């Protein structure tokens, strides 16, 4: 009898997880709390049940050539960098082609995932879900958690003195959908990641003024690279990766920073980062320099404190009559539905073997798919993770000992700190 696998979430990672289960002769049941596939990529005018979705203007920052699932290429006529609506079309084609929808239970919210009493022997899990107000319990041989990391908004209000007396509107970037409601307002965006930059530029066409506050600065890359080819197609090759690993860090940092500053000097634009090129992922913000040089976006340092109608920045400058503050400060990981102690979170970091398996489980029957922020697209990585995990579940492959897995995790942490 085929092993039963619970797949949690039917987004970019969940869809390929279902497909990988079928490839290995496993029996998947996917629990999706909304009424459709796509997860984060399905635009919704309002967040429903705390589920995040993207804003209306979003265009993906990885090219279609580098984000396809391995066995189902994105149609050639689609643009290199797709609007989110095209990404959703691709997901629908993928799901239809491999007949995935019949394995998905929609409007099914997972309440809890717990080890069975005989887990050390069987590795089985009890999954309790709620469908249309009715709770159901089922036993599964393995679980693939595919909920991603855009779950709980990180809202660090306690780091900003005076925020409680601010009379304007405060919101998280995940609530942002489109610019119309902010017309002719003065808006402060806090956080210079991909979302902060995108939302600032999007708003800058209709607002009176956008102020973009950054604590650390960032390196900015352009989607259109050498000779007009997509950035990832040019630079994310085996040869370039080999060079990056062979050459001294200092040399690669020098090359990268010189190349990015040749397009526009980051210091002149107020976004020169405190970190080196390799230390943190850059952001893809093609239009940000144009918005800065035309004055639609004014760069500001970190906020020191709030006043009733404005903010004071760490350089002593201040802005009054701020209507809205948008915190583009990212997300916290959350796996509240998984039994306590199974997934150990430390300062918004989870020690996982190869970013997939909790190393301390007696049986390797739970895997987390897509919980990483790669320099590139998540789709092919999630597919490889799911392919590996399903083969572990099936018994075709084995994991090392817990000590070996922990040593590997520690080594990766040290490597990242060194970079």
Report on this model:
By secondary structure, this protein is of the alpha/beta class. It has two domains: 4-151 and 333-418, FAD/NAD(P)-binding domain (3-Layer(bba) Sandwich), CATH 3.50.50; 156-327, 3-Layer(bba) Sandwich (FAD/NAD(P)-binding domain). It has eleven helices and 20 strands. The strands form six sheets. It has a five-stranded parallel beta sheet with strand order 3-2-1-7-20, covered by helices on one side. It has a five-stranded parallel beta sheet with strand order 9-18-10-11-14. The chain has a three-stranded antiparallel beta sheet with strand order 4-5-6, with no helix packed on it. Helix 5 links the parallel strand 10 and strand 11. Helix 1 runs parallel beside helix 10 (379-394). It is globular. The N and C termini lie far apart (47 Å). 35% of the residues are buried. Its main location: endoplasmic reticulum. It is an enzyme of class 1 (oxidoreductase). One of its GO terms (molecular function) is N,N-dimethylaniline monooxygenase activity. It is found in: Endoplasmic reticulum membrane. It comes from Podarcis muralis (Wall lizard).
